[in-house]
Structure formats: C-alpha cells, structure tokens
C-alpha cells in the first residue's frame, strides 16, 4: 500500500522491512527517510525532523525571546505542520514566543472556506489564537469575483499580490514582530529554478533568503527552508495532524507545475538534488552591472513598492475601473501601456510573470 499522498507528494511505502532503526539500533525501522534514505523508526524520525527545524531556527537566529509571531496558516499540510512543530519547539526549547495563527480568506468558495474550517479546528487543537482577514474586507473583491472578471488565466497574479499584502496587514493587526510561512525546501528549489528559467535576477538573488522583508513592515521567515515536502507529509500522516489537502480550484500554473515535476524526478534519482539546488541559489553572485529594482513606498497606500504605485494598487485600480487586465502583461511603471521598446517590455514581463506561483507569489 502506498503511503500518504498530498499535494503532489506521493510517498513510497512507509514500511521499511524488518531492519532495525539506523539511529537507535533498538526499534524496528518504520520508514525510509526521503531526505537521506536512512531506515529509521517513527520515534527517531520525529526527533530528527524536529531537531533539524530547531537547528535551522537557532543557526539563523530566526526569533528573539518575547516576539509575537504570526504563522501564515492556510490549513494545508505545510502550515499545519509548521504551527504544530513551532508550538512544540517553543515549549520544549523555551523560545519564549507568542504564537498566533493568521489566515487569509481569499474568498474561494469550495476551497478556502473548507480549509479555514481546518484552521479553526487547529486553533483549538494547538491552543493558538486565530486571526482571519479577507480579501473582501481589505480590497472589496473576493477571488471568486476576480475570476469572474478576469477568467482563470491570470488570476494567480491577483491572488499572490493581494495575499502578500494581506499577510502584512493581518500581522500588523496582531501586532506581530514576524510572519512565518510553511514554504519548504521543494518550494524554494522550485523557485530557484523558475527564476533561472525566467531570467529574473532580482528574485533569484533573494529567493533563498530564509528571512526577507527586514526593510519592510514585518520580516517574514521560512523555518522549513531545508525541510523536504515528503517528510512534512509523512510527519503529518504519522502524527495524524488535521490538515486540508485539496489543490486550489483556480490554480492553473502549468509552468510552475512543470518545474515541480522536474524537481520531483531529480529527487527520485538523487534525494540531495533539492538541497543542492538551494545551495546553488544561495551561492549565485549577481553581476554588479545588473540593474536591480529600487525599493520605495507606494504613493497611494504606503506599502513597499519599487514603482510609484504598488502592484496591489495597480491591480485593484484595474478591477475597480472595469479594466481587470490593466496590471497584467505589458505595463510601464506598474500602470498604463508600454510604448518604448523591447528592453522595457522584457523587464515588465519579468516583473509580472514572476509574481505568479502555485498560489501566486513565491517571493517571500
Ligand atoms: N490563505 C492563506 N492564509 C495564510 N497563510 C497562507 C495562505 N496561503 C498560503 N499561506 C502561507 O504561505 C505558505 C505557502 O503557501 P502555498 O499555498 O504556496 O504552499 P503550500 O505548499 O500549499 O502550503 P500549505 O500546505 O501550508 O497550504 C503556506 O505554507 C502558508 O504559510
């Protein structure tokens, strides 16, 4: 029988024969660790899984005692495991953090409403206060409305741009010092690859940072940067965690899907491939002649932006004026039509396409 399957991560059978665990040498091995292919028992798997995350947190000084940390909680496997493991580590290692669940309700009927029910149960199961903020309240539009206006093709751009800002705004309401998200090693390797494929040097240079946005309103970090998706699914399965495993109904991004499959193939042949791609991403050096966007603030909403208007304001403007494609495709300074030649067109295309992810924005 196959192991748990979720979100593209089909696992090998968790049984590992009658051998003894290579770590403790006492209990029977219950699984082959996807990251190292070691045969280990369940108890040792929990220990190494949690220890590696603890090491990542400590070595990268992700938190300071007394901080308020908002966990971006979608109800999916990654953020559910993150909420569970972070509250366990906070207790065991006395991090001294105040943890909160922060959910963004994008307004996707039959998807987010169901996954939010999972987060509401997690609130009780883990004893973590939950704050939900919605696109409808923040922007006056749900994703259902946006898809009606724009169709399926570019909807991920809206969703990703709005979510990024909504997480900041929700975290500000919680007076959080930090946001953590469940982006895992597979997600990061995939983003490295996509940024190479798109020639998006600005994002390539920062997509492997474990903490980003230190110059913005609230820094955000990724404690699962080195954690394999397959191990997250295994952990959730063995611990019987309550999570929601349906893919977004509006998620058509074939290009990212292709990169994802490619990485899964590499992982099958060589499990280290995921870590190696991340390592390559970490070690790229950007040539000093490459033009990088300059960070400023949006004239309208004050949110960080490298243009006069931030992407969220441009997209919202388009929606409200009945021109939903305004902020999509070829734009000049984030708004209006492009007219001055190839190079600018290429840059603006890059800006726009690189905002699209499995769920929109992966530039965390
Ligand atoms: N609606 C949301 N509300 C709060 N946080 C979110 C939401 N959607 C995504 N996130 C955060 O961004 C991370 C990456 O999200 P994404 O949907 O791209 O990946 P995923 O692999 O499906 O994650 P998950 O399994 O947690 O849903 C999530 O782990 C979560 O921390």
TrEMBL record:
SUPFAM superfamilies: Adenine nucleotide alpha hydrolases-like
Domain spans labelled tRNA(Ile)-lysidine/2-thiocytidine synthase N-terminal: 69-252
One Gene Ontology cellular component annotation held by this UniProt entry: cytoplasm
EC number: 2.7.7.-
Pfam families in UniProt: ATP_bind_3, zn-ribbon_14
Xref: InterPro entries: CTU1-like_ATP-bd (IPR056369), CTU1_C (IPR032442), Ncs6/Tuc1/Ctu1 (IPR000541), Rossmann-like_a/b/a_fold (IPR014729), TilS/TtcA_N (IPR011063), tRNA_thiolation_TtcA_Ctu1 (IPR035107)
Any GO BP: tRNA wobble uridine modification
Keywords: ATP-binding, Cytoplasm, Nucleotide-binding, RNA-binding, Transferase, tRNA processing, tRNA-binding
Residues annotated to bind ATP: 72-74, 78, 104, 182, 187
Annotated compartments: Cytoplasm
Location, primary (coarse class): cytoplasm
Residue numbers spanned by region Disordered: 330-364
Pathway: tRNA modification; 5-methoxycarbonylmethyl-2-thiouridine-tRNA biosynthesis
Function: Plays a central role in 2-thiolation of mcm(5)S(2)U at tRNA wobble positions of tRNA(Lys), tRNA(Glu) and tRNA(Gln). Directly binds tRNAs and probably acts by catalyzing adenylation of tRNAs, an intermediate required for 2-thiolation. It is unclear whether it acts as a sulfurtransferase that transfers sulfur from thiocarboxylated URM1 onto the uridine of tRNAs at wobble position.
Protein family membership: Belongs to the TtcA family. CTU1/NCS6/ATPBD3 subfamily.
Protein name: Cytoplasmic tRNA 2-thiolation protein 1
Organism: Sorghum bicolor
């Amino acid at each position: 029988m196959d192991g748990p399957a979720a979100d593209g991560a089909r696992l090998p059978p968790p049984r590992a024969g009658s051998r003894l665990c290579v770590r403790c040498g006492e209990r029977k091995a219950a699984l082959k660790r996807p990251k190292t292919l070691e045969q280990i028992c369940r108890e040792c798997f929990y220990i190494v899984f949690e220890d590696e995350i603890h090491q990542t947190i400590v070595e990268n000084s992700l938190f300071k005692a007394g901080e308020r940390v908002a966990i971006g909680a979608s109800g999916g496997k990654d953020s559910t495991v993150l909420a569970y493991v972070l509250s366990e580590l906070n207790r065991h290692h006395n991090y001294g953090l105040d943890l909160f669940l922060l959910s963004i309700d994008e307004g996707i009927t039959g998807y987010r409403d169901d996954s939010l029910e999972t987060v509401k149960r997690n609130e009780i199961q883990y004893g973590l206060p939950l704050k939900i903020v919605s696109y409808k309240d923040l922007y006056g539009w749900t994703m259902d409305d946006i898809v009606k206006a724009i169709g399926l093709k570019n909807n991920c751009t809206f969703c990703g741009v709005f979510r990024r800002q909504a997480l900041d705004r929700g975290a500000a309401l919680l007076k959080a010092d930090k946001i953590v998200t469940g982006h895992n090693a597979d997600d990061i390797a995939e983003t490295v690859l996509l940024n190479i494929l798109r020639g998006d040097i600005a994002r390539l240079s920062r997509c492997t940072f474990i903490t980003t946005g230190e110059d913005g309103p609230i820094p955000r970090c990724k404690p699962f940067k080195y954690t394999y998706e397959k191990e997250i699914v295994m952990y959730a399965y063995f611990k019987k965690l309550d999570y929601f495993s349906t893919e977004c109904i509006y998620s058509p991004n074939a290009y990212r899907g292709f990169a994802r499959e490619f990485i899964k193939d590499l992982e099958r042949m060589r499990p280290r491939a995921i870590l190696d791609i991340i390592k390559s991403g970490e070690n790229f050096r950007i040539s000093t002649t490459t033009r990088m966007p300059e960070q400023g603030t949006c004239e309208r909403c004050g949110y960080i932006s490298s243009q006069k208007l931030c992407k969220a304001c441009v997209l919202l403007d388009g929606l409200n004026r009945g021109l939903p494609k305004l902020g999509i495709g070829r734009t000049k300074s984030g708004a209006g039509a492009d007219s001055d030649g190839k190079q600018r067109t290429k840059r603006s295309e890059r800006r726009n396409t690189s905002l699209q992810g499995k769920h929109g924005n992966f530039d965390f």
